[in-house]
Amino acid sequence: MDVYQGIFVLISLASFCNCNDDSHQSVVIETPSGPVRGYHEALPDDLYVHRFIKIPYAHPPLGDLRFKKPKPVGRWTDEQGIQEKNGPACMQEDYGLNPEFKPEYTEDCLYLNIYVPGDVSRDKRLSVMLFIHGGGFVMGSAGEYNGQRLAAQGDVIVVIINYRLGLFGFLNLLDPIANGNYALWDQMAAIRWVHENIEAFGGNPDSVTIFGESAGGMSVHHQTLIPANIGMFQRAISMSGVVNKQIIMNDNDLKKVFNMISDKTDCKQENKAELLMCLQKLTPTEILGIVNIYEFMTPDNYTEEMLIGPSIDGELINGQLYETMHDRSSPEATFFRSLDFMSGTTNAEGSVLFYSLMPDFQETFNFSVEDGIPRRALCEAIIPGLIQGLYGNRPDLSQRLCEFYTSDKGNDDQSNQALAFYGDLTMVAPSTSALIAHSRKNTAHRTYNYILSAPSPVPFEPPPPAWFSGAGHADDLYLLFDMPILPTKNRLEERHTTLSSRIIRYFTNFAKTGDPNSEELPVTWPPYDVQTREYLDFDFELSVNKDFHVDATRIFQPQLRELFQNEKQEL
């Protein structure tokens, strides 16, 4: 199963906020796109925000606009923005795991939500933070994240966007008529709309930070490597996700999608224009039914299938960006290095693994995830399967990794070592690579690295096994957002709210100035440097450390020589 797909189906997070509903108080503002109505919402500690829900940033991608770049929304005359708490979600499978959160799933979904701290005034010139949600590029929505706490405590405008998912967002027919990456184009359209309209909300279009988590973090990093975005934002934060080897669909992936289209629909035309017209006439449900990643799983192996995601289109993406970002002469790297950049992960990102080991796989290797992940499953299937997909047939590398992640400290530690392999491969090593590409000999713009070590008090659904330790994938989200999925009553302690306040302050300081530090914060966060390699550890007691999982990164990305040498030299 793909590392990123299904993540949000399996995560239950919740809200810090027990807010009073003052939504009967409203304000209408005039934007360059037209009038928008927002609603007052009270928060604890005498704070309040104005929330603007369901603002269109592009035309609905319906009919002949399906599988096309987003069309600019133009100007409207009727008031936009409605009183409901959440706007619609883009088309995706409804797994029925969040009964308290049931958005409308529709193709007419290119909307964004805005949270403005305090009163709305053009004179404020507030910094802006635009969030791109995660969900493996197949699920999630802006409505899952309430940005009022982040906006109010950090005194920034928070924008949260929808973008097309699944095949709706990424179908590539290997032809200019439909060459994929519509989701990335959606994100760019939303960013441009914010740049052109945010002054009406009291925002500063010259102080915009894009940030995202998981697939959203990967999207953010992609956007920093697209020179067409020059001037649209000044800073970026990639949380638990950056551009890496897994994320770009290759020709074999695209051919498998073609075969699925032929097998599951009546659209079998060889002419690409006719094939596109046929696909545009299918119902949304028929489009959703085309790709099923579970069809590629076998009970005796563990493989990655990236059948939905960004692809090389010759326009937004011209090559392998995880390599291009290290070429300082490339336009992509030049733009990336002209921004302030922050990247981080949790200390147990591999938590995704124990959700993706299917029952047949567990039966084949005679184990239960609840009891632990044995060395045999790790060394005979998980490691070789993933390495095959990323590096080709490399039994030498698989053997070295097996030895590296073998523990003699008992079953629980061995199980967590299996998770460490998964997290190091998919997120930690790629994040380190991005940090090096950005910081190396870059004196004009700052780079920061963090690790989250404090686990979330809100359990995953289903809960993680008893042997699991650390902060798992997405354990950082509750610290920034209120999420209307499960209640957190009686689960939060003072240490959680303190950590949340500190992270919000660090992140919003960075969004305002490019420097996360300020006098009221207890620990000074040093910039990331290829020689010192320091990071801030977001635990309940903050600390500055260095070289997180550095030996693992050395195995996965030996080309990053500067990471392991004190002297400066060219890569």
From TrEMBL:
Its EC number is 3.1.1.-. InterPro entries: AB_hydrolase_fold, CarbesteraseB, Carboxylesterase_B_AS, Carboxylesterase_B_CS, Neuroligin/BSAL. It comes from the Eukaryota. Residues 26-545 form the Carboxylesterase type B domain. SUPFAM superfamilies: alpha/beta-Hydrolases. Keywords: Hydrolase, Signal. GO terms for molecular function: hydrolase activity. The keyword rRNA processing does not apply. Pfam families: COesterase. The keyword Thylakoid does not apply. Belongs to the type-B carboxylesterase/lipase family. This is Carboxylic ester hydrolase. It comes from Magallana gigas (Pacific oyster). The lineage of its organism: Eukaryota, Metazoa, Spiralia, Lophotrochozoa, Mollusca.
